[in-house]
Write a structure and sequence with these properties.
6 helices, Naphthalene 1,2-dioxygenase Alpha Subunit, Chain A, domain 1, 18 strands, homotrimer, alpha+beta
Chain lengths: ~375, ~375, ~375
């Protein structure tokens, strides 16, 4: 499957020097059961110690390669529940039954950060892990703008999910009776303004005269801005304004105007393997809190239905790709600008990563 | 798996220049949801336009290779429900949001025919598609001889299903308590007369003194004729006559005699892939209409049970083949004459097809 | 997957010249339905004739390679239920419909033995099949010491199951709330004495001051001895003695002393394929019969729960192995002595088997 153009000398399908969303921070409780997941084919375990601090390590006990995620947290250690080998949070083995001292062995520790309600793990060279690379999101626990969250998995290559997020014209078709109707807009009839910018792509657009759902005949102007950031983060802000605002703003960003209501979306695509992908998403509304609570529950139903629609379409698309000679051409249309920029962004990043690794190797061999 | 002898220079497992049964015509309604299926590893979509006319195309939108079978029919077009690309029934793209004119692209159209209640698609060179090649069947909607129909799938190579149909001695064993009992005959104790004839194999036989099921002790002579036609069509006619008729006819076909009752079977084997096969079948009785209606419902129960027996045997056989060195010999017995002729028929047809393709290539390169 | 060190010139993953446990003898009734299972990738059918005698053959009819396990037993023959080919218990074909004489063909017969409630099949060179190689077990039908039995399957390589049985320190972790509690002992805190001896490994140990489960505060000394024998048989005997007995015996085997109670375990690991493994186990208690009956039912619940715990751990371990470069090192700890001896035992046996086959080939070519 030729999802991205091959980088010369590079066999990899995944960016490694990246922060990936591992899951929702709320799903791990202090001292509770650790969580094991596979990220870009690497088994990783994440847990909180008794103080609530996050830790991440390879999910593989160096003794017999059993998963540490089936283990238990004891104070500041994680213990493999196959034969009892125990590790400190710096990866060092500190206990093995019948051995004193404990064997001189460590497990790989992953940089891990909790930010905006997500757990982020860095899968590449630790020396390069810089938290400032983590793209900004909202977080789901802000009482001013509560969000509802969920996680699903796709039987598809992650780039097919990226494609989906970088071309929202599909809302009119895949989500005809869900998100399109809830948005009151027609997503395929006008094109967003797209700008590429250092590891991210920004999409902006006005929908003039959009329907206000549930209010028959009422019209609004809706401003939408969304960002796709590496390795697969999608952040959307929507805001509804009185009819005529788009013209008033000369079709540009409405600055300093108070919208009638806002919605926000926070989504992350994390490759599990070449054939399976995790998707962690949340949706929120901003406005009068009591009214919003009811509306947010309704919206979450729509969003969950819509992502099920995406899952069905993308998995069906994957099955067709599996039956298709990779050399079979695909027609390029204006809507592909976003997916195309995303693909070039990944290719460029993979090339950078490849060159960095090679440079490091040359440096190492010179020493 | 060496199901057929390899044709030199030919990697293929399937006949391509063939009419395959795609499914039952009744399952598509005018302007309704299109149907996507895989035939010999080709994803194909079939739909009816508002006038009820059938159309078939590759089930792959040329934009992002999403399946058109998840699309919708709009008048005389089919629209991909991923991003809205729309095609005429001649395959030409006539609409893409944000593009005017629409992109100059077409999808592959498959010759498609409705005949005898089946939808037939031609998977090879369109120039060679000739409807007269379609073998005759009965159709299930004839009020004089109504049939009941069903479709199932096997986790097995299609040739193992062909084998099953070309050697009905298995009725005595696989269908001991179902079809054998319903037939009142012993299928393994005598051999049918077998003739091979231009893309088809005809089997004919008398069962003398067969039991009339449900009528204790009553005996009849039963004449059975069945045809296996490429690429996998099986048509059977059975007729019960008074005891002694076989002798009266000197063991040959009873011409001009009115039978006591008749049954008919219409079956199609369509390869999905090398490991999965579709099976579309119907059964019918001919006689006094009211009585037949009740009996037909009972017969359909027997037939459905019997084909479940076949499925279990053939899938179990496939699992043994998967565990077996393909070089392991198989014992040839008289019962294999039918399967052997079928195999030679397919080999010859594949060789013809291979030679035709080569000849076309030589011609093309000479031009 | 590098589960064992490769034997030079030998591609095999399995010992062949071995008696494998096929299943429980009680599951086959005289003249009843034959049973088909896959042992080291070989499809095998076992049945009892009308006299109750066991027979084993390749589960593959030489006609069309359908499984004989879907066939039926007729007197002293087994008949394929696809087309009726019938075989004597010496493998010779004695009947085929429409053929007289029957075709001159035989199926491979496997040496098969019923011993200690198990059915054993020999998968290698018949000339080498010697029943005295079968390791001793208990049998589940002895009225003096009744056992309860079960069979499960693992999605894992058989050596991961062997590892599990050869290092019972895992009882403290995997079976913390089941077997560990039921044993009243701490399995990871002391090491057993381990001796390797001609195709088997013996483990022996005292647990001093173990809890007597259900009797709060009461303490006993428990003597455990268990054997792992090729190709994957595990036999355990446990006996509880009054506190102080271990000291009295100077930590050696208690000879001639009557224990308070005993338990016995009989387990067999049989590879199905490189990725799937069968596990046939039984548990028994020895003591006052009426009281034991109730306790045995309870114990069987604990044992079944424990082997489900093993299954979850071992299958999770297998998934990690599947994601791991086989060159990744594993830390060797004292607990690995048992698994290590087991691995060396298998390697040595595979080398012997390989040399035997080569010697036979040289001898054959010299003749």
């Amino acid at each position: 499957m030729s999802y991205i153009r091959k980088i010369e000398g590079c066999d990899d399908m995944f960016l490694r020097n990246s922060w990936y969303v591992f899951g929702w921070a709320k799903d791990l409780i202090p001292g509770g059961k650790p969580m094991g997941r596979v990220v870009i084919e690497q088994p990783i375990v994440v847990w909180r110690d008794a103080q609530g601090m996050l830790h991440a390590a390879e999910d593989r006990c160096p003794h017999r390669h059993a998963p540490l995620s089936m283990g238990r947290i004891k104070g500041n250690t994680i213990q493999c529940m196959y034969h009892g080998m125990t590790f400190r949070t710096d990866g060092r083995c500190v206990h093995m039954p019948l051995m004193d001292p404990a064997p001189d062995v460590t497990i790989r520790i992953y940089p891990v950060v909790e930010k905006d309600s997500w757990i982020w793990v860095w899968t590449g060279d630790c020396a390069l892990a810089d938290e400032s690379f983590i793209p900004a999101a909202f977080g789901i626990d802000d009482v001013e703008r509560p969000m509802k969250s969920n996680s699903i998995e796709y039987d598809a290559h992650y780039q097919l999910v990226h494609d989906n997020l970088c071309d929202l014209s599909h809302v009119d078709f895949v989500h005809d009776t869900t998100l399109r109707q809830a948005s009151g807009a027609h997503w395929s009839e006008t094109a967003p303004r797209i700008q590429s910018n250092r590891g991210a792509i920004r999409f902006q657009r006005w929908f003039e005269g959009a329907d206000l759902p549930g209010q028959s005949g009422e019209k609004v102007d809706t401003w939408i801005t969304y960002d796709f950031a590496l390795p697969g983060i999608f952040i959307l802000k929507g805001a509804r304004y009185p009819l005529g605002t788009a013209q008033l703003c000369q079709q540009t960003e409405p600055v300093g105007l108070e919208p009638l209501m806002r919605n926000i979306e926070q989504q992350a695509v994390t490759p599990i393997s070449k054939t399976r992908t995790a998707y962690h998403y949340a949706t929120g509304l901003i406005g009068d809190t009591r009214e919003m609570t009811r509306q947010l529950a309704e919206r979450m139903d729509v969003v969950m239905a819509a992502f099920e629609e995406d899952r069905q379409m993308i998995e069906a698309q994957q099955r067709i790709w599996d039956l298709t000679d990779p050399a079979t051409p695909k027609v390029f249309v204006p809507q592909d600008k976003g997916p195309h920029l995303m693909r070039r962004l990944i290719e460029r990043s993979m090339r950078d990563e490849h060159d960095t690794v090679k440079a490091t190797e040359i440096q190492a061999s010179a020493v």
